[in-house]
Design brief:
Layout: E1 6-9, E2 12-15, H1 26-30, E3 33-41, E4 44-45, H2 48-61, H3 70-83, E5 89-96, E6 113-119, E7 133-137, H4 158-169, E8 174-178, E9 184-187, E10 191-196, E11 199-202, H5 213-224, E12 229-231, H6 236-241, E13 244-249, E14 253-260, E15 263-264, H7 273-287
């Protein structure tokens, strides 16, 4: 834990190490709740409106009434970012079902809890975004939409954690998760893109992944740069044959993939990823510029 981490909880900002929730909170007991991961740069939270909308959608998806309005949450985030020791960092916004008696019935919880952590984050053990990571094709399949809507960003990440554990045992940086039909869904905490003959491709939401905020920004960047983009189902073989492959996520930003299990991916002499990465950084600079 970073000693500089802060937490907004119960309308008070305190060191994260001093922030507590009840052992009877159903978010802890049953993973009953939702969350968002956000980044702030230059003292401003990137894509805040999109993240808050997704939080509201996730909460509605599990019948969870947020204890504060989106305006109040945005104000709390602004206060926390201002109090944080650095001008850039990571935010974890969590809403739990709240404290209640034992048993999964959410009606036992009187009021949801909301807290926000400001800290640093290392999604993968990669210090340089130019260094390509290795993926492991996980045997753990992505939970199908018939069981849990992938657009609900819930507190229960066990499916993703098991896949990441597989990747770690295989000596890889990240897991590649497939859906029940064998198509590429996503990484354990990130979306997947490939570039083939100048065309950017990413799996459609119907293939079982979360609608990533960074994923949407990258697609917008591609449009700006005149790069064709397709949402199309992908097999692992498509990734292996691609000119380029990379991951996107709030914490990861954009990270190139250089290997899938024991197979190295080709190195293209004229990569497009640097163009997209620069476009992404330009979006951050525009959004988070001082007024």
């Amino acid at each position: 834990m970073n000693e500089n981490a802060l937490c907004w909880i119960n309308q008070t900002i305190k060191p994260a190490r001093d922030a507590t929730v009840s052992v009877f909170d159903h978010g802890l007991l049953y993973g009953d709740g939702v969350f968002e991961g956000l980044r702030f740069y230059n003292g401003k939270t990137f894509m805040l409106e999109a993240h808050l909308q997704r939080l509201m959608d996730s909460a509605a998806g599990i019948g969870l009434q947020l204890p504060y309005s989106s305006e109040q949450i945005a104000s709390a985030i602004e206060q926390l970012v201002e109090a944080y020791f650095g001008d850039s960092g990571y935010l974890r916004l969590v809403v739990t079902r709240g404290e209640g008696s034992l048993g999964i019935d959410p009606r036992k919880c009187a009021r949801p809890n909301l807290f926000i952590i400001a800290d640093e984050l290392a999604v993968m053990d990669v210090s340089d975004q130019a260094v390509a990571v290795a993926l492991h094709v996980a045997q753990t399949r992505r939970t199908p939409a018939q069981c849990l809507d992938p657009q609900v960003k819930s507190l229960n990440y066990l499916n993703n954690i098991l896949a990441r554990m597989e990747a770690t045992r295989a000596g890889c940086d990240e897991a590649l998760m497939l859906n029940m039909d064998g198509y590429v869904s996503e990484g354990s905490v990130d979306n997947v893109f490939i570039i083939v003959e100048g065309v950017l491709k990413t799996p459609p939401l119907e293939d079982g992944m979360l609608a990533g905020i960074t994923r949407a920004v990258v697609i917008d960047v591609a449009v700006r740069e005149g790069i064709p983009c397709e949402e199309v189902s992908l097999r692992v073989s498509d990734l292996l044959a691609a000119d380029e492959c990379f991951l996107t996520g709030t914490g990861a930003e954009l990270i190139p993939v250089g290997q899938i299990d024991d197979q190295l991916l080709p190195v293209t002499p004229t990569p497009l990823l640097p163009v997209i990465m620069q476009g992404f950084q330009n979006c951050i600079a525009e959004y988070c510029a001082n007024p």
